[in-house]
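Hello, quick one for you while I still have it in my head. A protein chain has come my way and I'm curious about its shape. Can you walk me through what the C-alpha cells say about the fold? No rush at all, and the record is pasted right below.
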Amino acid sequence: MNIGVGKFRGLMRITNDLGQFQMLALDQRNSLKKMIAEQKNFADESDLVKIKRAILKNLSDKVTAVLVDGEYGFPENLKYVFHRTGIILSAEKSGYVVDERNPKDRLSKLYKEDVGKFAKKNGMDAIKLLIYWSENASEETKNHQTKMVEELGQVCVDQDILYILEILTYNVEKGEKPKAILNAMKTFSDEKYRVDLFKVEAIARVPDFDMSKDDIYEFSNGKPWVLLSGGMDIESFKDIMRWNCQLGASGFLAGRVIWKGAPSYVNSAELMDLHLTSTALYNLEVLKSNAAEATPFFKTPYFNGLENIKLTE
C-alpha cells in the first residue's frame, strides 16, 4: 500500500497510540447559531468564537484531533489547541444550497475555492469535506457533488494532505438508511475520489441487517470509517458507537453529542467552563470507552498493517 508522507503523517497525528480516531467536531456554524439563539435574540460572531474557544481550551487535550472551520475563530483559536492534538479544517460552507431546478436536492459548496492549498499552507493535518447525497437526486445534482469530491481529492493528493469525506444521506425511505449509508460509501470509495477516511452516519440496528465487518469493508473498499453523532444524546449514541465499532468503525468524529450543553451558558464563561469540564468531559469519556473496540486504521483491509505501508515522496 503506497501513501504520501504527508497523508501518513496526518493519520498518525489524528489517531491515538493504537491507531484509533477519537476526534472532536467544532466546525458547526448554522446549527451553533440556532443553539445560541435559544439563549439570546441574536448570535453574533463573537458568541461562536467564544464557545469554540472554550471547548478547545477545556477538551482538546482529551481527543486525538479537533475539526475546526476557517470562518469563526480561525486562526486565533488554534492557540488553544493542545500541542499534541491534530487539527482538521472543514472545507464546505455550512448547510447546503437548494437547487432551483430540483428543489428537493441539496448542493454542497466550498467555503473557500483554494481550501486545499489553504489548509496545507496553514499546517493542517487533514481536510474534511461534507457532502449531502441522495441516490434519488437529479443527475445534475449528483454530478455536481461527485465533481466537487473528485476535484478536492486531487488537490489533496497534489498537496499531500489527508482527505476526509463526510457523507450525509437524505431523501431516504424509512428503514433504508443503513443501505443508503453503505451505498454512498461504496460510490465514493472509488479510487478516483482519493478519499482516505470516511465520516458517516451511524449504522442503526434494523431487523434485517445481518452484515459482518468484512461485508461492510466491501462498501468502503477496505478504507477506514468513523462515525458522526448528528446531535444525538449520549445515552443513545454510546450504544450505537459500540455496535458500529464491532462492525469495523475506527472511531468517531463527534461534536454536539459531547458539548451541546455549552451554548446554554453563552452569557457566563465560568459556568460554560464548569459544564465543559464536567458534563461534556463525561460524555466524551463515555464515548471513548464505548469505542474501545474501534479498528485501528492500519488494521483495515486497505492498509493491512503498518508493515505493509510504503511511504512515497
